[in-house]
Structure formats: C-alpha cells, structure tokens
Amino acid sequence: MSEVSRRQFLSVVGRGLACAAGSAFLPESMAAVVTSFDSGYFDRIRRFSDNHATDIHLDEAEIALLKRVAARIRRVQNTVGYGNFGIVGFDQMVRVGKRYSRVERFDDQELQFLERIFYEDASRLGFYGTKVLYRLTDEIPNKAVVKVPRTGQFLYKGESLETYERIKAAIGDDVVLTSGVRGVVKQMYLYLNKAVRTGGNLSRASRSLAPPGYSFHGVGDFDVGKRGFGRANFTERFAKTDVYRCLVDRGFATLRYPQGNLLGVRYEPWHIKVV
Ligand SMILES: [Zn+2]
C-alpha cells in the first residue's frame, strides 16, 4: 500500500467507522470504496441530490429510451396493481407487455437496456453495496411473502415479518410500513424513475436508491415511517420524529445506510436492516 493510499485508507476508517478497531472489521463491500476513495466522497454523499463532476450520465438517446421503458413499466404496474407489482418478476413483466395492448410488448432495444442497467457494475457509478439478486429473472416466491393489510406492501415471512410485528407492538399505530419487499422489477422501476428525475445521472440516482439487484428490499429489509408524515418519511426529517426516537430507544434502528456509511448511499434513518 503506498503512503498516499494508506493515508486515504486510515482517513476513511477514521471518519466512517467510529467503533471499528481496524481493517479486520472492514467488510468486503467497504474495501471497494477504500480502494477507490477520493476526497470528494463525503461531499458527494452529503449533497447526494446534486450533480458532481465524477458522475456517470446516460446520453440523450439513452435518456429517450429510459423514459420510454419507464413509461411501459408504469403501464405494467397499472395492469397488475400497485401491491402485486412489488413482487412481479422480469419474465412476468415481459408477458404482461405481450398480453395487454395498453402496455404493448417490450422491444429488443428496451430489453437490452434493462439488461444493461441490471448487470452494470454499480461501483462504476459510485455505489458500493452488495448485490443480493444476481439474475435479472430472479423471482420472489409467492409462498415466501405475506401481504401486510392496509399498506399495499409485502413482507417476507419469518424474521422480517416478526421484526415488523415487534416494532408495531412496541410503538403502536404511529409507525407504518412504507416499503416492504421489492423484486427486481419494482426496484428497476423506482431506479429508472429516479434516473429520469436526475436527467440521466445514474450516479446521482444510485446515491439515494440502490440499483436493481443491489436492494436489500429484495431479501428482507423494509422501510418504516410515521403515519401521516407522507414523503417526509424518506427524508432526514424522519430522524427528528418521535417514531424514530422510539425505534432507537427500543433497539430497532439497525440501519442499512447509517450516517457516514461507505457504501455510496445517503443517510437513510427509515431503512431497517433485517438480513
Ligand atoms: Zn429502504
């Protein structure tokens, strides 16, 4: 390790992992960011919704394709229903396109684009999380999940559901499940919409939403919020609520993306790490 990279390494460990005693505690995914760490990292995360010089962008033709395919997936969501869309698989999505004239089939260009987005190495964008769903066609088994009444969301049976039930029992009606299981298609759809809103800046999109395949919503994590707090549940303002204080007090605030994380992701106080 050169002297410069050693200093960068120590600097990352020192700033990001207050209680880690040394590199032995550095998970593999964090090791990736250490090797590609530069002085702008924390600035990019702090100003996650700004454009930064090192960001990766789609070109104009790709942005047109992005909008077209995002609109088609929206029509798939409208066809299968908001709740069910959370666990729709890729092959099922393609079949819905073929079957329903209001959706229309996904053409080769669109399919290749989705494939490229899915298999893109996210560290190129500045996202250093772990991939948890490896194939574009990976599916969420129906039997593995349960619909949570009045939320429009699914949760995995077992530890996820039990954790959510413990949270409800401890905090009561003020806490609500805001996002549960997301299959590849749902995560793809959220990510593409984010990319539309960033004008094709994929790095900026990936700072506030895991690229498809990298979201732990695919394997058991979920988001909670304060009832009636709306979209503010997905901002740092959530951390100022009484619900969040209760989560911390009761030991439920096991965050996937804490403040100062080295995964390339903004602070997400609402995202409960289960897996
Ligand atoms: Zn989340």
Give a structural overview.
This protein is mainly alpha-helical and 275 residues long. The protein has one domain (38-272): 2-Layer Sandwich (Muramoyl-pentapeptide Carboxypeptidase, domain 2), CATH 3.30.1380. 43% of the residues lie in helices and 7% in strands. The protein is built from eleven helices and five strands; from the N terminus they run H-H-H-H-H-H-H-E-E-H-E-H-H-E-H-E. It has helices spanning 3-16, 28-35, 41-46, 60-80, 82-85, 90-99, 108-119, 159-171, 184-197, 202-208, 242-249; strands at residues 145-148, 153-156, 175-179, 222-226, 271-272. The protein has a three-stranded antiparallel β-sheet with strand order 3-4-5. A hairpin with a 4-residue loop joins strand 1 and strand 2. Helix 4 packs across helix 7 and helix 4 crosses helix 9 (184-197). The longest helix has 21 residues, at 60-80. The protein is globular, with a radius of gyration of 19 Å. The relative contact order is 0.15. Mean pLDDT is 89; it is low at 1-28. The structure holds zinc ion.
